[in-house]
Amino acid sequence: MLAFAHDGFTYPLPEGHRFPLAKYRLVREGAERLDGVEVEKAEAADWLALRRTHSDDWIDRVREGRLERREELALGLPWSPELVERSRRATGATLMAARAALEEGIAMNLGGGTHHAFAHAGRGFCVFNDVVTALRTLRVEGRLRRVLVVDLDVHQGDGTHALLAGDADAFTLSLNGFRNYPFRRVPGDLEVELPDGTRDAEYLAQLGRVLPEAIRRSRAELAFVLAGADPYEGDRLGRLALTKHGLLDRDALVRDTLAAAAVPVCVTLAGGYAEDIRDTVEINLGTVRTFSASQS
Ligand SMILES: [Zn+2]
Known about the structure:
This protein is an alpha/beta fold. It contains 10 helices and 8 strands. α1 (23-32) runs parallel beside α10 (277-293) and α5 crosses α6.
């Protein structure tokens, strides 16, 4: 399985910042040690591709560092030229993984899943929306039409929902923590709202119920999976109570259900904010291992 990495393009963060920037290098190093996984460096998404998703105004102001203070606060990350480069690479990684998935059945971005980015604004650690940029670019290239987005990050993918709201050929499925960010929701096509403290059995039962329905209704030629690590019981922002084993079961359920329907899959990692960063890395590497195992 090809996996695309962008951790080499780092950016400055204040000490103690809650964004787990260090996890990406650790996940990439772990993935390089796995049999059957080939890690490649992601290219930057070009500006033309990003303009398929974002307004000229947003792109120009991000490029030139002209964000307002309130926009930087909503983003949750301080602007820097390096952040812009990193965000382009993260989007490029999803585009490259999506292309590889169409050819090989499965591929991965060792990051990405930036689902809070809207057309005119970035939010919640998301500067550009990687999945929407990738799917629109693949359509322009004539490679696909219908897509399914399976969003298993605990936070609702409000930006992705808004961007795909009028798109009859894109179907969004998400399992969200009900009492969690974002507090102003944008409806998706099929959503499950989970109460605080939801555990493995309930989560897996809900996913097993809605995923086949989403596959059927989407008639997708490609699925994007946001395999967030933040439903984990030890996550600082998640509020759910899945175990590491439960998350492995989740990934295997997604892999096997999509494989049975012969839908190629592009996996992204999305969020993960465990108290100990090693827990997030372990969960992310479990995702890499699970999806790469479908190759053999
Ligand atoms: Zn999240």
